[in-house]
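Q: Is it fine to ask for two folds in a single conversation?
A: Yes, each is treated on its own. Send the first.
Q: Here.
A: Result:
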Amino acid sequence: MVSLEEKAIATYDAEMYYARYEGKAEGMILGMLSRGHSPQAVADFTGIPLARIEQVIIH
């Protein structure tokens, strides 16, 4: 049986992993855009959906 503390730690770890992943993806998107790549080229190169790239541009 998993204690509440262990569950909280596992949840926190998962959330931090996701946040780091998202941060890296956004950084890569912004970096490529700042180097003159089009949103479509970024999507083609990275496999990230164009809609997600457009969200990063808006925010």
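Q: Second one now.
A: Result:
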Amino acid sequence: MKDHHVPAVAAEPAATIFDKILAGQIPCHRVYEDDHVLAFLDVGPLSPGHTLVIPKERKAFLHELSDEAGAAIGRALPRIARAVIEATGATDYNVLQNNGAAAHQAVFHVHFHVIPRRGAQGLEIGWAPRSIDHADAADLAGRLRALLGQSD
């Protein structure tokens, strides 16, 4: 008997703590909300003012978001960053967004961290840059342009 391949349907992500926050089942220190975005203080902050910005659309990874949800996050992030730096007095900050367990994502609902940097408080980053291979980079850039509908 021959197996008939049935295309896999993308599974709805498992419920997260953010679903409970969005549903009002868990309280949060809300700082911003509109039809598509919610921002609230992180309960385990790296520094005072550490704010989480989430889409109300329930997706685990950034690449899964609709263009509308992505645009809404993009509109909200600068406003929230301005408020965080003004409220905290910080002049430096990080915006962090992780996708997947290997990239240190702990809650599988898209979220951005706005993390003020004041003295030793804030995000510590290890960075190990490598040299670029220009032939490989030209090939990769061409493939990316094609996928994004951009001409050479």
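Q: Anything structural to flag on that second result?
A: Two points. The chain has a mean pLDDT of 91. The helical segments are 17-22, 67-88, 134-147.
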